[in-house]
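User: Fold this one for me? It's Cobalt/nickel transport system permease protein.
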Amino acid sequence: MTGLAVDDAAWASAWRGRAPTDKLLLSGGLVVTALVLPAWPGSLLVGLAAVVLALGPARVPAGTFLRAVRWPLAFIAVGALTAVVTVDGGGLGWAPDAGARAGGLVGHALAGTAAVLLLATTTPMSDLLPALRRLRVPAAVVEVASVTYRLLFVLLESLGAVREAQAARMGWSSPRRSYRSAGLLAAAVLTRSWDRARRMQEGLAGRGMETGLRVLPESQPSSRAFLASGLVLLAAIVGLTLGAR
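Assistant: Here's what I get for Cobalt/nickel transport system permease protein.
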């Protein structure tokens, strides 16, 4: 089965044995701090803290962390561009405060993304989902997240199998063939994944399964020292940001 780099990093993280709720509270606190504080220097400090924690104490591979931030960065760039463009009678133009608006948007978004990736690269989904149940997140939300997570691996497995078959038939040997193979690959992956999901649902229904799949989570006690360190970090970020204004 094909794996996800972020998921592999979470399983190999030095924070793997820490309580998921501790890491969830830390990352959530960083996200809220990034949203509430001004972009300068608040978002910069939050993003820097998240990256340092991930690459330092959590020992997440730098390449994995940087690759994981690429796609969110593309969405952030598009969002920043649309936020600074104005449309009036004279056509397209730049907003009067385009620089400040784009800088604030990018700063908040990047800091929040880094904080979420800190959680994603240190906490496997098998640990996070039971923690969400203990925090009384609605069961339907947790179940949808669980099914979506499982279907990701179905998609990746189908993608790898179809692409390998196409490569064996020289389907990617030229730009024209690559363009055609890409379309066939997308159609085949969606069709096979839909069929796999349907058969999975029918199999579970045939076994009389009407509720979510419950498993016995691994016992991971909370650490007061870790929580206290997180609070000190958040207080330091808030203090430095307010002191710089």
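One thing worth pointing out: The chain has two domains: 5-131+221-244, 138-206.
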